[in-house]
Amino acid sequence: MTAILSAAVIFVVFAVGDMISAKTKAIVTMLLIASVVFLAGFWTGVFPTTLFADSTLLSMAGLLVTMLLVHLGTTIRLRDFGAQWRTVIIAAVACIAISAAVFFVGQLLIDRGFALVGAPILSGGVVATLTMQDMAQKANLPELAVFATLVMCAQGFVGYPVASLCLKSEAKRIKGRIDAGALKVDASAGAAQAAAAGRKKLIPALPDKYNTPNAILAKVILVEHPQRHPG
User: Fold this and answer.
1) What distance in Å separates the CA atoms of residue 11 and residue 54, rounded to the nearest whole number?
2) Which of 32, 134, 146, 181 has the lowest tally of Cβ within 10 angstroms?
3) Between the ranges 15-19, 167-171, 186-190, where is the mean pLDDT highest?
4) One domain for residues 52 and 70
5) Is the pTM of this model over 0.70?
6) How far apart are CA 115 and CA 101, in angstroms?
7) Are residues 51 and 84 both part of a single domain?
8) pLDDT: is 80 or 139 the higher one?
């Protein structure tokens, strides 16, 4: 299958997943739909097993994932960690507990290498999956790379619907409190963020006319490069 056709098939599946996600108000997520379609397609032979390789998207994954991590980092300020310290502690403890339990208990049921690959994926999601796949391929262990994908898909079948329902329930609870007057939205938060954005920075931002998409991508890659090549 040609690269263009392979990429078209992949993004058609993603687009259908987006439509279903929007129709169900994210109760059924795009990733869940895509996982089911791709698994069924590979198992039945409708999709060639080289679909992703043929699309040449895999060669871009390493670059795009690290750029995504840099982008996510820029959306979080250090002061936010202080304001949400309970959430940070709960998330950190949960990640450590899940990884430790899967790694140590998993060794009793499966090979140590498989347990080591699966542990971070259950708490790290797609980014952890891509990271573990990259490490497995560099170690010439393709079976572990495949196992990483299976763990992510298996987790998604249960995790995505549960997470969507929990988030929807929490959103309804907060909206109910706001409507009842029990919870007030802090209108000054937006003003504080705007004021913080206007402060002088250690490295001055480029003027708007020079801060083009190419310049933004260049800055992201320059920040990302030392992380992937520390030497």
Assistant:
1) 14
2) 181
3) 15-19
4) no
5) no
6) 10
7) no
8) 139
Is the same domain home to 67 and 134? yes
| 3-state DSSP of the chain | CCHHHHHHHHHHHHHHHHHHHHHCCCCCCHHHHHHHHHHHHHHHCCCCCCHHHHHCCHHHHHHHHHHHHHHHHHCCCHHHHHHCHHHHHHHHHHHHHHHHHHHHHHCCCCCHHHHHHHHHHHHHHHHHHHHHHHHHHHCCCHHHHHHHHHHHHHHHHHHHHHHHHHHHHHHHHHHHHHHCCCCCCCCHHHHHHHHHHCCCCCCCCCCCCCCCHHHHHHHHHHHHHHHHCCC
Query: How many separate domains does the chain show?
Result: 2
Q: Both tokens of residue 231?
A: 């030497």
Q: Are residues 139 and 180 in the same domain?
A: yes
As a whole number of angstroms, the distance between CA 12 and CA 147 comes to 25
Instruction: Indicate if 47 and 69 belong to the same structural domain.
Output: no
Query: Any idea what the Cα angle at residue 77 is, between residues 71 and 204, rounded to 5°?
Result: 75
* HSE of 10, CA atoms in CB hemisphere, 13 A: 18
Contact 145, 136 (CB under 8 A): yes
Structure tokens at 160: 């995505």
Closest CA to 129 of 154, 149, 107: 149
Domain range for residue 35?
1-56
